[in-house]
Amino acid sequence: MTFFWHDWAGYIGVLLVLCAFLLLQLRKLHGNGIIYQVMNVLGAVGVVLSLIFGVASMNWPAFLMQVAWIAIGIYGIVHSARLNRRLR
User: Fold this and answer.
1) CB neighbours of 48 closer than 8 A, spacing ≥ 6?
2) Which one of 1, 61, 63, 77 has the fewest CB atoms closer than 10 angstroms to its CB?
3) What does pLDDT average to in each consecutive run of 10 residues of the chain (88 residues)?
4) Euclidean distance between CA atoms 83 and 47, whole angstroms
5) Cβ(13)–Cβ(42) under 8 Å?
6) Model pLDDT, residue 6
7) Cα–Cα distance measured from residue 81 to residue 76, given in angstroms and rounded to the nearest whole number
8) pLDDT value at position 70?
9) Quick one: which of 85, 79, 87 has its CA closest to 34?
10) How far apart are CA 88 and CA 80, in angstroms?
11) Using an 8 Å Cβ cutoff, are 6 and 54 in contact?
């Protein structure tokens, strides 16, 4: 089996999302924390890259879910940054 760069991007993306969720459940990260949000956004980007470049036909439901995951994560990052600025 040959692995291409987009395969690795997808596997690393899945690993990032799962690790973020595990760390959240272990109470090592906060759901509104910047590290959790960045892990989710980067993970979803990796999965999107594997979906775009890795298959002959697009898996649209998976793609749309990842795009929503990215949008929500970016919203969380921006919201956390604004909150942190206000608190300083």
Assistant:
1) 13, 63, 66, 67, 70
2) 1
3) 91 97 96 94 97 88 96 94 86
4) 29
5) yes
6) 94
7) 8
8) 97
9) 79
10) 12
11) yes
Helix (H) or strand (E) holding 85: helix 60-87
Residue pointed to by tokens 């921006």: 78
pTM given for the model: 0.90
Max intra-chain CA distance, the chain:
52
Q: How much is the pLDDT for 32?
A: 87
Read off the tokens for 19. Answer: 């690790």
* Gap between the Cα atoms of 88 and 78, Å rounded: 16
Q: What percentage of the chain exceeds 90 in pLDDT?
A: 77
